[in-house]
Design brief:
Chains A, B: One of its GO terms (molecular function) is DNA-binding transcription factor activity. Chains A, B: Residues 1-53 form the HTH lacI-type domain. 2 copies of one chain form a homodimer. With 332 residues, the first copy, chain A, is an alpha/beta fold. Chain A has helices spanning 2-8, 12-19, 27-40, 46-53, 69-84, 99-111, 124-131, 157-170, 186-201, 216-226, 240-252, 286-302, 328-331; strands spanning 58-63, 88-93, 117-120, 139-142, 152-155, 176-180, 209-211, 234-237, 262-264, 281-283, 311-312, 315-317. Chain A is built from 13 helices and 12 strands. The structure holds a DNA duplex (21 and 21 nucleotides).
DNA sequence: TTAAATGGTGCGCAATGCCAA
DNA sequence: ATTGGCATTGCGCACCATTTA
């Protein structure tokens, strides 16, 4: 900075003013300083600035559930939203979520003096661990459960599940099963609740409930079980990956969708449209979720109230994996 | 730090020595200082340290091709490897790669005084843009082309494609088509070359070559074209997502795999095993790629020669989407 | 006594904010 | 209304002083 000041014939202080857009600078001076900056290829030293301002302009992102479509997509959009808002985003991806890995991750970020943390996690353990602590910086949880933590931003899972189930009901299905996500995920709980509520509101009894782990493998296992139950004519699966496995199990079992079973997924992964059959699923607007996560964090850091809804509403995307129930007696 | 020194009854210098693991500290003193650190919840100020050491301990990751399985997976493993190696990883995800978005991204990172940059990009434009410049910090390209840039780490795409094609040849296929990735991606080029070489080495003429864009949609389009050509009995598809679309097109066309066509993908996404039929594909060891990327960056930063292979060898995973060619005349 | 081990002092890193010119 | 000077931020290093074997 001293070099720039010398080149422009001003004090280093004036250079600082130009950089920070102070209003009280004569245009000619500003011009001189700016051209000196350009010529010298000068870049302000972030460390020095952080030291004196006590602001790092950095936020941390903790992401869990790597490999899954949803968390991954959200991670990207949050990074992007952070950069647009002028933050430097540092991230930590956790393969497994335990008290110790999570604590380490938070510690890693806090050491870097992040001004806020966004955690993408739906596991109950993670939520409980962070909700009882104060890290000294704003903390926003994405895809968690509103009832389990305070600063949550995400998609209205329950509404999405409700709409997906309602779609199956409208088609005329009366025995609608659900393959849910793992026990410890709040999203899995919310989707199950949506399914349950939609059935109750239609006067239907809950169908079979099976547990998966989000993987195609577990969806396949669930499908193997369900395919034997010919009373069940529709399945709401908690994510697209499991739906892939389930579709295959039904196909193998000689009862392919949508003729023998209607299937709805959740996520709308890019390939959902090209599965056999194309998958009816629930689309979540991850870009909007990312934007809101950063908006909430921003508000927390600035200490103001954010005026934004916490939950984004998802949409059901209709495709060929759902149809009216097949009634052998009707066609016979 | 002054507080810690006071609490432990030593000078701030001694505290600094303890934190940085200086050998010349009496165990009892070290113990006193450490407990003071714990009690006060003291965390060294990264900015101050960076200022004086002129080292940020931060590296930058630029990732392109978000949404694709490969780049996403690699991103995670690099982040993880970086943290294990003591680096703070900041990342920038680029939705589109142009000279300006890439320059912005690099600038964003350089402003944070990153000590090195890892770029996950296979697009020729990106490689060309960075290979003619010196950013003042080590720069490693992941998944690029060894011939296009110097510091490249990745999977041996060509070998993987060669093995995949050779597998089809061994099964007895003689007309083997290829659905490649977009024109501007070096990985797409390498996979095409591997396909071409394997055919040439077997004395076979190249089959039909179609271009896709990595999406299931484009694979579906390619499949619609290929399914009409009954001479082609096998297709090597440059990634699993396109293979999904292609499988569907063949299914719709009444020529399902593996009976009428053998299909090999590339990536081994988690759901590949549960497609209809389960997809034979090429698995890449992303964890190893991430580790090596950081190892190379580390070496570059320390100014030493890395003693590691740049390319990781992939494996062909055999599943049900490939089989011996179907010969109507033989069964008739 | 010498040599090794340990602790203390003050400066400088690169920026910003306040106050004075 | 502009511009400059001085103090300040938290830490590490060079250097010096002191204790211990």
């Amino acid at each position: 900075m001293a070099d720039v000041a010398r080149a422009a014939g001003v004090s280093h202080q004036t250079v600082s003013r130009v950089i920070n857009g102070s209003p009280n600078i004569r245009p000619s001076t500003r011009e001189r300083v700016e051209s000196a900056i350009r010529e010298l290829g000068y870049r302000p030293n972030t460390a020095a600035r952080a030291l004196v301002t006590r602001r790092s302009s950095t936020i941390g992102i903790i992401s869990t559930g790597s490999g899954l479509y949803g968390p991954n997509s959200i991670h990207r959009t949050i990074e992007d939203a952070a950069r647009s808002a002028g933050w430097f985003a540092g991230s930590v991806s956790l393969a497994t979520v335990t008290a110790s890995t999570l604590t380490d991750a938070i510690d890693h970020l806090l050491r870097q003096a992040v001004e806020g943390i966004v955690m993408i996690a739906g596991q109950v353990e993670a939520l409980e661990l962070v909700s009882h602590q104060d890290f000294g910086v704003p903390f926003v949880v994405v895809e968690g459960d509103l009832s389990k933590a305070t600063n949550v931003v995400g998609v209205d899972q329950q509404a999405g599940a409700y709409a997906a189930t309602a779609h199956l009901v409208e088609l005329g299905h009366t025995r609608i099963a659900h393959v849910r996500g793992p026990r410890s995920w709040t999203e899995a709980d919310a989707r199950e609740t949506g399914w349950r509520d939609a059935l109750a509101d239609s006067g239907l009894a809950p169908g079979t409930l099976l547990h998966g782990d989000w993987s195609a493998r577990s969806g396949y296992a669930a499908g193997r079980t369900l395919v034997a139950d010919t009373d069940t004519t529709a399945v709401f699966v908690a994510n697209d990956q499991m739906a892939i496995g389930l579709l295959r199990a039904y196909h193998e079992g000689g009862r392919p969708a949508p003729r023998h079973v209607s299937v709805v997924g959740f996520d709308d992964t890019p390939e959902a449209e090209y599965l056999q059959p194309p998958l009816t699923t629930v689309r979540q607007d991850f870009v909007e979720v990312g934007r809101r996560a950063i908006a909430f964090l921003d508000a927390g850091i600035k200490g103001v109230e954010p005026h934004l809804e916490r939950l984004v509403s998802p949409d059901v995307i209709l495709r060929a994996s759902t149809a009216r129930p097949f009634r052998p007696e009707a066609t016979a």
